[in-house]
Write a structure and sequence with these properties.
Elements lengths: L1 H16 L4 H24 L24 H25 L12 H8 L4
Helix pairs in contact: 2-3, 2-4
Amino acid sequence: MAAAAAARLAAALRQRLCNHTPWEDWAETWAHYLHITDTLETAAACGLSLQPQRRQRAALEHIALQSADRAVYFDQLIADWFPVAYVLNNLNRGMGLPDAYPFVLSGPQSRNCASCTR
C-alpha cells in the first residue's frame, strides 16, 4: 500500500515538473549556463586553482574557457564547474549562508546546457 502511494506521489511530482513550457525550459537552461560560465570566467580571471587535501575531491589546475571543439568545450566546462560549485557551496555553508549553487545537474539537464554551446 505504501509503495503504491509513493508511486502515485512520484508520478504526480513528475507530471508537475513536466508541465513547463518550452520557453520555461529554455530560460532555465540558459540561466544555468550563464551562472556556470560567468562564475568560471570570474574564477579564471582570479587565477583560481583547487588542490583539496582529500584525494577523492576533484582538483582543478586551471579553468579552460575555450576549445575549438564545442563538445570538448562543454565537457571541460562541466568538469571545471563541479569542483568550483563544491567549493562555493562549502564556503557559503561555512559562513552560515545557503548554497550558492544548490542544484544538481542531471544527465538531461547537462545535455540541455550543452545545447547552449551550439
